[in-house]
Amino acid sequence: xxSIQSTVAETPLEFETVIPVRLDRVPWCRFHWMLVIxxxxxxxxxxxxVTLMGAVAAVLQHKAxxxxxxxxxxxxxxxxxxxxxxxxxxFGHLTDRFGRRKFFFITLALYLIGVxxxxxxxxxxxxxxxxxxxxxxxxxEYSAVNSAIDELIPAEYRGQTDLAINGSFWLGAALGxxxxxxxxxxxxxxxxxxxxxxxxxxxxxxxxILYVRRFVPxxxxxxxxxxxxxxxxxxxxxxxxxxxxxxxxxxxxPALRIRRRRHFGLEVIFEALLHRYRxxxxxxxxxxxxxxxxxxxxxxxxALVLSRYYAVxxxxxGLYLLPFAISNFIGPLVLGRFFDTIGRRQxxxxxxxxxxxxxxxxxxxxxxxMLTSLTLASLWTILFFFASPAASAAYLTVSxxxxxxxxxxxxxxxxxxxxxxxxxxxxxxxxxxxxxxxRGALFAGYLTAVALMLAAAIVELAYGxxxxxKSLEEVAAPLSSID
Length: 483
Prior knowledge:
Blueprint: E1 14-17, H1 19-25, H2 30-55, H3 70-98, H4 101-118, H5 124-152, H6 158-167, H7 169-183, H8 191-212, H9 220-225, H10 229-243, E2 256-259, H11 266-276, H12 278-299, H13 302-310, H14 317-341, H15 344-367, H16 373-400, H17 407-436, H18 439-463, H19 472-475
Antiparallel strand pairs: 1-2
Helix pairs in contact: 2-5, 2-6, 2-7, 2-8, 3-4, 3-5, 3-17, 4-5, 4-8, 5-17, 6-14, 6-16, 7-8, 7-14, 11-12, 12-16, 12-17, 12-18, 14-15, 14-16, 15-16, 15-18, 16-17, 17-18
C-alpha cells in the first residue's frame, strides 16, 4: 500500500469523499485481525514488563540487590509515569502532524530500548532514567496506536475491539506473573540475577512486533485531511479486497466534504478542547484521572502490601498477581460488547460505580484485619473484573469524541493530565502510607480512590457521549470538514 503518491499540489483545496463511511461498512475480516495483533501485542509486552516491576518491588528492597526503600520504589513508578506523560504529549502531537504509521516504529523502539536497559541498572538513578525512557515509549504508543485503531476499525465493533486491545495488557500481566515464578525463584536464579533476566526477555520478543507492523497501513482518514486522496483510496480498496466488500456500493454512500489542511495551530487545538468540546474534555479528564489513581495505587504497591502485612515471600508474589491479571483481561472481553449494544454512557457509569463499591468494601475489611492474603487477592480479582473495562473505556472515550486532526494529541493530553493527577502521585503516596505500617492510613488512601471513581461515574452520567455504533465523523466532525 502506498505505490500511488498524490501530492498536495495535485489535490484540490476542497473535495468530497465517502472513504470514512466505506471503512465503517467493511465487514470484519483478516485485515482487522492483523491490525489487532500488530498493534495490540504491544500492550501484552507492556503488561508483562509492568507486572514484573510490581513483582520485583520487594526483591529490589533486598540488600543483595539494589536495597531500595518503599518510598524509592514508589519514586521509580512515578519516573515511569512521568516519562509516559511527556512521551504521550510529544509523540501525540507528532502523530497528528506526521501520521500514525511511522510512530508505531519510533515509539516501540524507544520502549524496547528502555526495557532492555532496565535489566542492567546499577543504582537508583540509572533505574529511574531507564524507567523514564520505557514510559516515554509506551506513552507515545498510547497516542499512535489508539488513534489508528479507532480510525481503521468499523463503527459496529469499535468499542469492544478497543476495550479488548487495551485489556490485552493484562494477558501480558498474567504471563509476567507466571514468569516471576521462575525468574524470582532463588533456587533457580541468584536473587540479583533473576529480575534482570525478566526485564531482558521483553526486548527480544518485541523485535518480532517491529516486523509485523510493516503490514499496518497509514490511517486513510489521516491521509484524507492531508490531501493524499489517492493513497487513502488505495488503502481502503485493499481493505475491501480482504473483506470481499463490493466497491460499487460507494456511489450510494453519503459523502463528507473536506477542506485540505496539513496541520493546525495551537490556538485551533485549544479552542476545540477548551471551548467547542469543553464538556467532553471534563469527562475525559475525570475518567482518566480516576482510573489511573486506582490502578497505580493498587498495582504498583501490591507486592509491598503482601510483603509488609502478610509476610508473603517476594518469589511468591507472582501467584497473587496472576488471578486479578486474568480478571483484568477477561472483564473487557466479557463486558466489551455491551459498550456497543447497551451503550457507552450506561456501561461506563455501571463499571466505575461497581469498582468503587468493591474497593470500599475491600479497604474496610483490610483495615479491620479481616482478610488473609488469599481473600484480599479474591476481592481484588472481583474489583478488576469491572475496573478493567472501565479503565479501557476511558481510553476509548478520549480517542473517539474529538476531531480526527487532534485525536492523537487529545489522547495524549488526557492520558497525561489523568496520569499526572491520578497516576504519578498515587505510587509515591501509597508507598508512604505503606511505610507507616498503619492499616487505617492505607484505608484512607483507598477511600480517596473510591471518591474519584464515584465522581467519574456521575460526570459520565451527566456529560457522557453516546458514541456506540456511530462513525467517528458523526461523533465529532473533522476540523477540516465543510458543514
